[in-house]
Design goal:
binds N-oxalylglycine; 27% helix; 8-stranded mixed sheet; alpha+beta; single chain; 8 helices; 27% strand; 4-stranded antiparallel sheet; 18 strands; binds nickel (II) ion
């Protein structure tokens, strides 16, 4: 495992300094494939640099998002209530989860974005242009990463994951989270400890889709759940890097790889003094896609761990559960199955 950077130390209980894998995508492809697989097996999470997405586009997307959140409440509400797509404040999902944030959740499909732009932006064609370009760039990056993962896993079909995201009916989403400072008057020196002045922004969860690509402004807040050398779970703060993307494995990728890659549990903290803004592309299959451990991932030594399910069934289950539920467990095969994997 190549670990090039270490996150900052945080004094909060159960919050440790841990190295997050940093993967340079300009390195030779076989090396990158190997390192990505290792990172996804060990952490389900890594950071990419030299990813090829233009800095101008990243900044345009960030500014467009910031402008949206600076609108008066009644303008933002024109995006519609979060059902689940739309504009939400504090409430996440349908089951009582709350956090210190507001968000805009969009379908990543261009016609959806075009339609929403007309109701939420004073410059709808610019809004659509920026969001669609950004979605195109991060979808492309996701597909590249998924193809390299498939190569590293030695799958016969190296497009097994990426075809689901490039499908015209892909149910991928774009989520923009804004964590306003909850106490602007707080001075930073509270016990000299920045981590002490945080609140839950977005509670512990795993992302349900295949892959997530997150980019944030320069404000910390993201934490991932890891095991320390003693086997205890610890929250590891991830240092922000607006020039990079953070990639995490989602539940469907864990299921398709028969549990080899880990859908990482993570959360975001809101702090008292600075606004964090994050933009996440969630790469998902079409609703009717049947998800099952791939045949290459199943063998007598590695019997099938999950029952087949459609993405639509998975979403339906998820909407009935709290954010922190380990919902993939509900789809575990009762008895590990040897030979009846589905393609
Ligand atoms: C999410 C998420 C983290 C963040 O929206 O699924 O994990 O930093 N967000 O906003
Ligand atoms: Ni998430």
């Amino acid at each position: 495992m190549v670990v090039l950077s270490t996150s900052p130390v945080c004094n909060q209980t159960a919050c440790n300094a841990v190295g997050i894998p940093v993967i340079d995508l300009s390195r030779p492809r076989p090396d990158v494939s190997r390192i990505i697989v290792e990172a996804c097996k060990e952490f389900g999470f890594f950071k990419v640099i030299n990813h090829g997405v233009s800095k101008t586009l990243m900044e345009q997307m960030e500014n467009t998002a910031r402008e949206f959140f600076s609108l008066p409440a009644q303008e933002k509400e024109k995006a519609g209530p979060p059902t689940p797509l739309g504009y939400g404040v504090r409430n996440i999902g349908f089951n009582g989860d709350v956090g210190e944030l507001e968000y805009l959740l969009l379908h990543a499909n261009p016609s959806f974005i075009h339609h929403k732009a007309k109701v939420i932006s004073k410059e709808p064609s610019f809004f659509s242009y920026v969001v669609n370009e950004y979605v195109g760039a991060v979808r492309h990056l996701s597909c590249e990463i998924l193809d390299m993962l498939a190569e590293g896993l030695k799958l016969r079909n190296t497009k097994a994951f990426s075809t689901l995201l490039s499908d015209l009916e892909s149910d991928s989403l774009l989520r923009i989270n804004h964590y306003p400072p909850w106490n602007k008057n707080n001075n930073l020196s509270m016990n000299g400890n920045k981590c002490g002045s945080t609140r839950i922004g977005f509670g512990e969860h795993s992302d349900p889709q295949i892959i997530s690509v997150l980019r944030s402004n320069d404000v910390e807040g993201l934490q991932i759940l890891m095991s320390d050398p003693g086997g205890n779970s610890v929250w590891a703060p991830v240092a922000p890097d607006p020039d990079a993307f953070f990639i995490n494995v989602g539940d469907l990728l864990q299921a398709m790889t028969n549990g080899r890659l880990l859908s990482v549990r993570h959360r975001a903290m809101a702090n008292s003094h600075e606004a964090r803004q994050s933009i996440i592309f969630f790469g998902a299959p079409p609703l009717h896609s049947l998800i099952s451990p791939l045949p290459d991932m199943v063998s007598p030594a590695d019997p099938r761990k999950y029952n087949p399910f459609t993405w639509s069934e998975y979403k339906k289950t998820m909407y009935q559960l709290r954010l922190s539920h380990s919902r993939l467990d509900l789809f575990q095969a009762d008895e590990p199955q040897e030979n009846n994997s589905l393609d």
